[in-house]
């Protein structure tokens, strides 16, 4: 069974414990204590399953020579040179690596990603494997949407490092349609890309809230010596669970929005849902009706408008009325231009 992200981290911790020169022959309690310190509580039964998987799971591919020493009352690798970090890449691994390289290639102009291709090349050379390096051949089989160079990308590397090191930053920021900038003192939490733009999510002690900043509107960043403690309450998946796009407003509540979808848009929205919370409530020859639970935002109204007459808001009435107002303003703008 393929390892999920959490399992992968646990396997690495076990691997490091078994290869430790300072604390050889760790027992399960030692491994559990190390995991507790690095990723939080892990049950003893989970550690048992991880040790078994590392030894015997052929699909996982480690087949680690883990042995228990009765003399030392702990575990070790029978081959002292073994490490899961040294497992050779299969042909399938190489194909996936190649695909990943060409996927990441669209970010080649982003400073913090500029070494990715070189780093992957080093891995391939280290494993003494031949790498197909024909960009033209790859494009003949698979093509990605071109990503324009995002403004503000020059801040990525500094912010990323501050997130890793838990460093407070002072950020000078000027929103669109504002003439004056403002200085924010922030605890940076997360970098997020959305539609070829980069955003920083950071906790503002002054506002006691997590705020979102477009990097293309950042004028300057000063890294502070002060370190911060990241709140355990912040979960990026939960934070964006009901967002539509990048906007998460603290002044709005989650709304259950009912939509009527035309025949043309139905197949599209079945194959690529409008939102992660999308639920189809009824279907007919004319189309379908669905529900989504979202925080209404500019991105939401823009997306609905982009479908023209194929999507209609049924309820709630306040959101339906707001959509009508947007459409009215659009028609007025066209009337004036003619």
How does this model look, in words?
The protein has 338 residues and is an alpha+beta fold. It has 4 domains: 5-86, Arc Repressor Mutant, subunit A, CATH 1.10.10; 91-141; 153-239, SH3 type barrels; 255-337, Alpha-Beta Plaits. 37% of the residues lie in helices and 23% in strands. It contains 11 helices and 11 strands. It has helices at residues 5-19, 28-38, 44-56, 91-104, 116-126, 135-141, 156-165, 236-239, 263-271, 298-306, 317-337; strands spanning 66-69, 74-77, 167-173, 182-194, 197-204, 209-214, 218-227, 255-262, 279-284, 287-294, 311-315. A 5-stranded antiparallel sheet has the order 6-5-4-3-7, with helices on one face. Strand 4 (182-194) and strand 5 form a beta hairpin. Helix 1 (5-19) crosses helix 2 and helix 1 (5-19) packs across helix 3. The longest helix is centred in the C-terminal third of the chain and has 21 residues, at 317-337. Residues 127-136 have low confidence and may be disordered.
Structure summary, number of beta strands: 11
User: What distance lies between the first and last C-alpha atoms, to the nearest angstrom?
Assistant: 63 Å
Poorly predicted ranges: 127-136
Q: Structural class of the helices, strands and pairings? A: alpha+beta
Give the SSE map.
Blueprint: H1 5-19, H2 28-38, H3 44-56, E1 66-69, E2 74-77, H4 91-104, H5 116-126, H6 135-141, H7 156-165, E3 167-173, E4 182-194, E5 197-204, E6 209-214, E7 218-227, H8 236-239, E8 255-262, H9 263-271, E9 279-284, E10 287-294, H10 298-306, E11 311-315, H11 317-337
Antiparallel strand pairs: 1-2, 3-4, 3-7, 4-5, 5-6, 8-10, 8-11, 9-10
